[in-house]
Specification:
This protein is of the alpha+beta class. It is 45% helix and 15% strand. The protein is built from eight helices and seven strands; from the N terminus they run E-E-H-H-E-H-H-E-E-E-E-H-H-H-H. A five-stranded antiparallel sheet has the order 1-3-5-4-2. A two-stranded antiparallel ribbon has the order 6-7. A hairpin with a 4-residue loop joins strand 4 (105-112) and strand 5. Helix 6 packs across helix 8 (192-209) and helix 7 runs antiparallel to helix 8 (192-209). It starts with 7 loop residues before the first strand and ends in a 5-residue tail after the last helix.
Length: 214
């Protein structure tokens, strides 16, 4: 599967206040402090340290035991092209769904109108598992499809390679979508051969989304 070609990642983001259109829930520095506290708390729980004395002893013997790995990137920025109709409010509206579907939590957003590019800064630390979210290629495609659908962005030139994902998301949002389309096709002024072809296309899409066929 081809990886997303609309997402750009920045591992060392700064606050997005340089853009006229921006929204900040917290600064990068403020969120970093919170994440470091959560990472420390996770390690304390994982080591089953129940007293301050036990914490101090561990830190004395292993100074880095409660600190994050130097390679960890718990704050990252994603940027992607948008149309002029997309607003900051649109970006804010999808934050809860992004958190639900991908765990990552956006706390800053901006739109560069000169380049028509949206910027979103995320907290990538998964508190439930004590590690950062990893968006492997398949997941990056899913994130791209999510953004295109939710923000009504133009379909990229390679989007046909993701068509299965678009159909699956449509099916998840509206399981009866294929029954509706099959019924609507009946009312098209088509010859029998064309009608059968479209009906079979809809059925094939449904079977692919439900896992009956590959």
């Amino acid at each position: 599967m081809k990886e997303s070609n609309i997402l750009t990642f920045n591992n060392t983001p700064s606050d997005l206040t340089g853009f006229p259109e921006h929204w900040l829930c917290e600064t990068v520095a403020e969120r970093e402090v919170k994440i470091l506290g959560d990472i420390r708390a996770w390690h304390i729980m994982n080591h089953r340290l129940t007293t301050e004395k036990a914490v101090r002893e561990l830190e004395k013997n292993s100074p880095y035991a409660l600190l994050p790995s130097k390679n960890i990137r718990f704050i990252r920025e994603i940027s992607f092209p948008v149309d002029e109709h997309v607003t900051i409010d649109d970006l804010k509206d999808i934050i809860p769904l992004l958190r639900q579907k991908f765990v990552i939590d956006c706390f800053q957003a901006a739109i560069d109108r000169d380049r028509q590019v949206a910027h979103m800064v995320f907290d990538w630390y998964d508190r439930s598992h004590g590690k950062c979210v990893y968006l492997y290629p398949h997941k990056r495609v899913c994130l791209s499809v999510f953004l295109v659908r939710e923000l009504d962005l133009p379909r990229q030139k390679d989007y046909q390679l993701w068509i299965r994902h678009f159909l699956q998301e449509d099916y998840k949002d509206r399981p009866q979508i294929f029954d509706i389309m099959t019924e609507q096709v009946k009312h098209f002024r088509l010859g029998r051969r064309a009608y059968n072809f479209l009906r079979d296309c809809v059925l094939y899409a449904e079977l692919a989304c439900t896992g009956v066929i590959k």
